Give the backbone structure.
Amino acid sequence: MKETLPLGRIGGTRIGLHWSVLVVVALVTGSLATGRLPDAEPGRPTWQYWGVALLTAALFLASLLVHELAHAVVARRDKVGVDGITLWMLGGVARLSGEPPTPGAQARIAAAGPATSAAVGALGTVLALCVDAVHASALLVAAVAWTAAINFVLAVFNALPAAPLDGGRVLHAALWHHSGDRLRATRGAAGAGRLLGWVLMTTGFVVVLFVGDFAGIWSALVGWFLISAANAEERRATLHSALDGVPVRQVMTRDLVTVPATATLTAFLSEAPFGRYRHSAFPVVAADGTAAGLLTVRLVDRVPVTARGSTTAGEIAHRVPEVPATTPDEPVVDLLPRIEAARDHRALVLDEERRPVGIVTLTDVSRTLAWLSQATRLPSP
């Protein structure tokens, strides 16, 4: 899930929002402003209901962020990197840069989210009781109580033993610990996720068709997401298993054409399309030959023709911190999550002196996987 709006960093972790968060804000705000809040304290001006509802929706998003930050904190304690957190329509996603090294680490990382949501729910319950005890506005009590309740729901739902929910990752850790087979554990957790997804989808459609309550659409949507995500996790695990032990050097594209950071776009384009530049992405190098960034045809396209004579490759290239970097000896399975999360789905391969020696793309990985799949089907001599 790629972010649409970056919000900055918290403790070094990149935070962003997906555009679908607007759907959550609209649904939560609308349902509270037209239902729960007027019922809690009738007779208030309409703008007060909508104002408190919007504030409550913001608190809900904040609680989702706290849930994901808990995953990030525990992951870092277990030496697993975190590329970022993205909030979206159905919750949040903490993107890990690698796989947990042990079943215990995976269980700890997964359990941190529901435990944190339950703690937020308990804190909200105490706060609601305190606010009510001092006879504060019923609107405020209702808003705090709703936030506490939704965090309990979030904790319980995420604790269900079905991938890709947190409980599914705990189940995966248990199966992995029991069998010692990571891929087999993933298939078991994914199967549970698909089962839960079909139950939710079926329930949602039954509610819509036979009860006439369109709230069932939400259940069906969550069910569809669970099925899709469970299938994606199983495919990813199968891919990781196939690529296990394959180093980046066996996958990367080697015939690089580098572009000096000081080269103008006009000079760069004068070599294309029949000159040396037949690729769509090019490492940009500093004067000492070290990697300075990555230039793509799409970036060049954004520069007006009249400005290309005075614009250099280094000025528009994606900088190295924004582009995943790897070494020839890193396992492809460790690099893959970073490529998938990258803006251009590419990674630069650098030698010990930080000079580019290759590029890895998702196409390179897919091509290698296809060759490996065919090789396993070849009959033995």
Observations:
- The two ends are 45 Å apart (CA to CA).
- The mean pLDDT is 88.
